[in-house]
UniProtKB/TrEMBL annotation:
It holds the Pfam family ECF_trnsprt. The keyword Amino-acid biosynthesis does not apply. Coiled coil: none annotated. The chain crosses the membrane at residues 6-26, 33-54, 74-95, 104-126, 132-158. It comes from Aminipila luticellarii. It comes from the Bacteria. Keywords: Membrane, Transmembrane, Transmembrane helix. GO terms for molecular function: transmembrane transporter activity. This is Folate family ECF transporter S component.
């Protein structure tokens, strides 16, 4: 029975990694300094289901696979680190917890402010050489939209659709 559980986990993780790649690479708006999309959703669901380590590794793997299959520019390992930290953060905040709007807000706030605004802006600064203050306005607007969208969608998708199925 234990073996079936591991196979089931592997299948679910593979499906969510594929969904993350599709949502990130094909269903998002990309510019050189920001990406708007729904790739966070499968990562948050992995965090809810499997915890910080597995969701972090899955998102990092999804970032690597997505970059190899559908490159959008030069590969930079800092973004893979951000992907791992994002998945881990969702896992730390959401794993084995009641998925409420307050908890989703906390996870989204941390992910958007620490990793998307802070770390990703630093990576872009390293890559482009543009001053951080030049990059910040567009990235601040992005997180102003991202936090409410993530806060709304994470509990909605989990509680209304996936909780019953998985």
């Amino acid at each position: 029975m234990q073996n079936n559980s591991k196979i089931r986990q592997l299948i679910i993780m593979g499906l969510f990694i594929a969904l993350e790649i599709i949502l990130t690479r094909f269903c998002s708006i990309n510019t050189p300094i920001l990406r708007l999309g729904f790739g966070f959703l499968p990562v948050a669901m992995l965090g809810i289901l499997f915890g910080p380590l597995w969701s972090g590794m899955a998102y990092a793997l999804g970032d690597l696979i997505g970059m190899m299959i559908f490159p959008t520019g030069a590969y930079f390992p800092g973004f893979t680190l951000t992907a791992f930290l994002t998945g881990a953060t969702f896992g730390i905040i959401l794993y084995k917890k009641n998925i409420t709007y307050q908890r989703a807000f906390l996870a989204s706030l941390l992910v958007c402010c620490l990793w998307n605004l802070g770390l990703d802006t630093f990576w872009l600064y390293i890559m482009t050489g543009k001053g951080i203050l030049v990059l910040l306005p567009a990235r601040l607007i992005k997180i102003a939209f991202a936090i409410p969208v993530q806060t709304l969608l994470i509990p909605l998708v989990w509680n209304k659709y996936l909780k019953k199925v998985i």
